[in-house]
């Protein structure tokens, strides 16, 4: 029983790591304060769930989840291109509210608040990942590939342009860089990995509804990015493990479930506050949150 519990936690760590790494690309490396990331997560989850429930193989649904989310990432850049800082945050937050409203009210497609039950477990090349242990292996593989790809992107000349946009977009433009296109690439790639994280989440939980993708689900992911340190993939990995495992002892103290949720948010808020006061760059951050 205890082994199954830890397997469950490490699956969540893997999914949150993919989600946090993808957010790190747009927030930490490109400087785009994107609060609509949970919307890409939702788009990926619903895309994969609807496709697999209609008989589409998991691998196709998995890739489609990322691609559809990526398309929305590209689209989001168009109205927000000239926005920065708080204004960009509000615009992307508005996007997440729009996606939430669609999943809640487009009942003929998403079943609204009733959600989508019975989402099939992943099956790739005849291998079904029905047990939690096999799903953990799949999650670790995908999280590892995600880490490798994002690391290669950020260390390339392509990634250096992202950092230039973050540090001074006007200088990047002066040097002849198409910042609109590069921001589109950043949000698109970020959304792609958020989408595949959503597909993994849907196939693991086997049930999703609009309440799974509210702004409250964004808070721990944003905390991971800030606490681990902006523009630090290593910090993101460390912070993901810490923030997923840290609140778990609350389950064994005897608190009712109605208290555990708010207590988690209080713990996240306290850690974030302490980090911002005493270590503004996070654990391994390269830049301060401004």
Structural features:
single chain, 290 residues, mainly alpha, two-stranded antiparallel sheet, 13 helices, 2 strands
How does this model look, in words?
With 290 residues, the chain is mainly alpha-helical. The protein has one domain (2-215). It has 13 helices and two strands, in the order αααααββαααααααα. The protein has helices spanning 2-29, 37-53, 58-80, 85-105, 107-110, 132-155, 157-167, 169-174, 179-205, 215-228, 233-245, 250-253, 257-278, and strands at residues 123-124, 127-128. The protein has a two-stranded antiparallel ribbon. A hairpin with a 2-residue loop joins strand 1 and strand 2 (127-128). Helix 1 runs antiparallel to helix 9 (179-205) and helix 2 packs parallel to helix 4. The chain is globular. The model has no long low-confidence stretch (mean pLDDT 90).
Summarize the structure.
This protein has helices at 2-29, 37-53, 58-80, 85-105, 107-110, 132-155, 157-167, 169-174, 179-205, 215-228, 233-245, 250-253, 257-278, and strands at 123-124, 127-128.
């Amino acid at each position: 029983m205890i082994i199954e519990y830890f397997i469950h936690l490490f699956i969540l760590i893997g999914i949150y790591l993919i989600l946090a790494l993808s957010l790190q690309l747009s927030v930490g490396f490109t400087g785009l304060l994107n609060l609509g990331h949970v919307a890409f997560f939702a788009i990926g989850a619903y895309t994969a769930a609807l496709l697999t429930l209609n008989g589409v193989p998991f691998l196709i649904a998995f890739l489609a989840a990322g691609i559809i989310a990526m398309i929305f990432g590209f689209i989001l850049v168009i109205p927000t291109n000239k926005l920065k800082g708080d204004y960009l945050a509000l615009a992307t937050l508005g996007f997440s509210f729009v996606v939430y409203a669609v999943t809640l009210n487009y009942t003929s497609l998403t079943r609204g608040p009733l959600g989508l039950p019975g989402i099939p477990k992943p099956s790739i090349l005849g291998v079904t990942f029905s047990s939690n242990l096999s799903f953990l292996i799949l999650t670790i593989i995908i999280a590892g590939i995600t880490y490798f790809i994002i690391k290669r992107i950020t260390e390339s000349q392509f990634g250096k342009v992202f950092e230039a946009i973050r540090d001074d977009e006007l200088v990047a433009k002066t040097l002849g860089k198409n910042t609109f296109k590069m921001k589109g690439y950043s949000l698109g790639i970020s959304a792609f990995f958020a989408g595949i994280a959503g597909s993994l989440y849907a196939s693991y939980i086997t049930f999703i509804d609009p309440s799974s993708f509210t702004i409250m689900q964004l808070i721990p992911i944003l905390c991971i990015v800030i606490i681990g340190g902006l523009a630090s993939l290593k910090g993101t990995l460390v912070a993901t493990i810490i923030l997923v495992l840290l609140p778990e002892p609350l389950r064994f103290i005897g608190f009712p479930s109605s208290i555990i949720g708010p207590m988690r948010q209080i713990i996240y808020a306290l850690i974030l506050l302490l980090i911002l006061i005493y270590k503004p760059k996070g654990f391994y951050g390269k830049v301060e949150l401004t």
